[in-house]
Amino acid sequence: MGPFILRRLAQAVFTVLGVMLLTFVLFRLVTGDVTAQFVNPKLGKEARLAWLRKNRLDRPMVLNLRRRLIFTDRSAGDGALAVGQVPGSRAAEALGLEKLTSAAVASRPFQLLSAKTPLADLTEGEAWLAGPKKHPAPASGPATQPDATAPRAALRFALRDGGELEIDLSDLSDRGDKGDRPSPSATCGDLMRRIHEHPENRGRLAVTVSAVSPGGLFDSQFFWHLWESMTFSNRSYKTNELLLDVIAKKARYSLAISVPLLALGWLLALVVSSVVAYYRGGLIDKVGVFVCVLGMCVPFLVYMIFGQKLIFEIAPTAAWGLHNPANIFVPIGIALIAGLGRSVRFYRTVILDQVGQDYVRTARAKGVPLYGILFRHVLKNCMLPILTSLVLSIPFLIMGSLLLERFFGVPGLGDLMVSSVSDRDVPIISGLTFLTAGIYVVGLLVTDLLYAVFDPRIRLR
Q1: Which three-class secondary structure state does DSSP give residue 392?
Q2: CA–CA separation, 461 vs 458, rounded Å?
Q3: Max CA-CA distance within the chain?
Q4: What is the rounded CA–CA span in Å between residue 342 and residue 212?
Q5: Is the dihedral of CA 337, 342, 348, 351 positive or negative?
Q6: Are 351 and 274 in contact, with CB atoms under 8 Å apart?
Q7: What is the chain's pLDDT, residue by residue, as a tens digit (461 residues)?
């Protein structure tokens, strides 16, 4: 049995991983950017980027292969490496060189950065200059010298030895009406050579490309999505509540509906289907089958609408919400009636396979009472398909009924799932999906183990 359990647990891990991958693709890749729903566009780009960093959405999608340009000061001195401002130039800001470390200035990270990476990609298309490029009017007189105070694209580094190194980037620009931008043909290698070959550099300032860190390889949106879902540390985009706190607060309402509904529905369906199957071909069987088929033909939504209308006529406060704790029995009763016909039809088919067996005729001949034949012998021998059907209901013990809770105003996890989809609250959706998948695969494992308990002929290998 041990190897069987280990094998099923391994299958469960891959099953849950596949579910989380599908969830990630649907709600992160397909739906696109969600910042417009949670960040006021009037706050600008900085607010949007801050929200993305807070929710770890600024990481790469699957694997973090980002690298940086590292500017290392090798000069001898007691000062600190710094990036100075060149009047009119936004090159340092475009390259992401505002944040300093003790020994280097790192550019903003870029996926698979190399010497061949275009500067326009690294700078995300930002302009080198503070404003649009101004084209002077043509002069008819003699040529004049260029204005030394005119804005120009440049980087200025203050080195540790007290010296300064100014790198002109004008010829790496794409001059246009909207201002100087990095030329599409200019690469990071061009910038690195420009710095290394500067006549005043002489090896004092070195530029290299950082290596990919094995530890940071999994610092990506998918693995954070997986980790937060497994640990239930997701936080709602809408309310910033921790998922674990949300589950603790709302699961009790879902359990208050699903547990009595599952227990009563299962018990009542077994009793009715056993009696109907025992009198196979008789009046009881024919009437029971007719009522079950008739109930199956009515949509579940019709039961809820007319059931709620009836309750509203009798007790208006019990028709919606939880103003009174007894209101929880209204959706339970309606769902029980709506699902009874389908359950009785299924169980009747299963029990009919056993009612015609020789041991049932022998028990009848010996005078065994009806309840003894049905509940002591028949049900025990047809428990395998019944257990299989129960597994499908296990995830809803915690998750509740999405439609039922939404319709009757029950603030459970099913209602939360529906509202989270409409609100694009991805952390809540992914966390609840992981919870459902986990409960489901555990239920499958327990069912396989119970097979061996109810049928000694089954061996778990």
Answers
A1: coil
A2: 9
A3: 127
A4: 57
A5: negative
A6: yes
A7: 778 888 888 888 898 899 899 888 888 777 677 888 888 888 887 888 888 888 888 888 888 888 888 998 888 888 888 888 888 888 888 888 876 665 678 888 888 899 999 888 888 778 888 754 444 445 454 544 445 556 778 899 988 888 889 998 888 887 655 557 888 888 999 999 999 999 999 889 999 998 887 778 888 999 999 999 888 888 899 888 998 899 888 888 888 888 888 889 888 988 888 888 878 888 888 898 899 889 888 888 888 888 888 888 888 888 888 877 778 888 889 889 988 888 888 888 888 877 778 888 888 888 888 778 877 778 777 877 887 777 777 766 666 677 888 888 888 888 888 888 888 888 998 888 898 888 888 888 888 887 777 777 777 76
- End-to-end, the C-alpha distance of the chain in Å comes to 6
**CA–CA gap between residue 105 and residue 97 (Å, rounded):** 6
CB count in 10 Å sphere of residue 222: 19
Burial class (CB in 10 A: 0-12, 13-18, 19+), 246: buried
Please identify which residue in the block is written with the tokens 């067996």: 357
- Residue pair 339/299 in contact by the 8 Å Cβ criterion: no
Non-local (6+) Cβ contacts of 447 within 8 A are: 387, 388, 390, 391
**Where in the chain are the domains?**
66-132+151-209, 243-423
**8: three-class secondary structure by DSSP:** helix
- Which residues contact residue 86 at a Cβ distance below 8 angstroms, ignoring those fewer than 6 apart? 92, 152, 154, 155, 156, 166
User: Beta 104-106 vs 173-174: how paired, if at all?
Assistant: unpaired
Beta bridge partners of 47: none
Q: How far is CA 458 from the centre of its chain?
A: 39
Q: What is the DSSP letter of 165?
A: E
Paired tokens of 227: 């980790």
Tokens representing 138 are: 């043509």
Query: Which of 153, 201, 149, 150 minimizes the C-alpha distance to 174?
Result: 153
**According to the CATH classification, is domain 243-423 in 1.10.443.10?**
no
Q: Which two tokens stand for residue 188?
A: 């990071």
Contact 427, 283 (CB under 8 A): no
What does DSSP assign to residue 38? H
Q: Closest by alpha carbon to 133, among 91, 180, 98, 196?
A: 180
CB atoms within 10 A of CB 227: 13
Contacts with 266 (C-beta within 8 Å, 6 or more apart), sequence order: 343, 390
Per-state percent for the chain, helix, strand, coil, to nearest 5: 55, 10, 35
